[in-house]
């Protein structure tokens, strides 16, 4: 399939770098930029969905692009100072604004609050553009497993006493989350749905590479006050666990866009840690 020409409708996102293309089985193409933005386009080159897939930093490239070497980006036109964080980090809100201006759907798989912001969700709804987010739940990651264990405790009539979760990883995205932990902690708590769960700060260990290791603990009481203690060690390839969910979310957004549905997509909620209505 020939490489499509660049369209004037491409969202003008901060710090756009040279990109490359990869084919997908669904006869569409991904345009992947090193600023952490993925765009789903048709064979004609017309953009339809933009996705923010990594918590990006001006000094650290996300896992889907090469390392950036240029100067820190300046605030782009139309992006308010509130879209930027300390140390020059560009949040997903800036990319959401770019998608809105370009008239394309937006998928936020980072922990930044985007779809949870009522005013922004209302603007996407009014424009007839799908807004999907926030923070994807990996196919079989620590949040999914931990939530299933907590549900099992409730269903079997046990009393939950305490629980905690520790996550270690070595990807560049993991390092960004360690350096900017605030939104990730809240998103984890949203996914687990219990105030009795403690989520330890993420640990970045470069030698782990793409491997993610999670330690889960559940302390409960059974019949007659008898103690029940459960410890789980989960080891997964972190990028692979997110890739399929990313594709599913983008496909949902593309279908909704073609059918003229804007704003929140209820069918995407099960694939997310923090859908609209959860805490920011």
From TrEMBL:
Single GO MF descriptor: inositol-3-phosphate synthase activity
InterPro entries membership: MIPS, Myo-inos-1-P_Synthase_GAPDH, NAD(P)-bd_dom_sf
Gene3D superfamilies reported in the protein's UniProt record: Dihydrodipicolinate Reductase, domain 2 (3.30.360.10)
Ranges for domain Myo-inositol-1-phosphate synthase GAPDH-like: 141-238
Single biological process term from Gene Ontology: inositol biosynthetic process
Region feature Disordered, mapped onto this chain: 1-21, 56-88
Biased composition (Pro residues): 63-74
The name this protein goes by in its record: Myo-inositol-1-phosphate synthase
Origin species: Micromonospora auratinigra
Species lineage: Bacteria, Bacillati, Actinomycetota, Actinomycetes, Micromonosporales
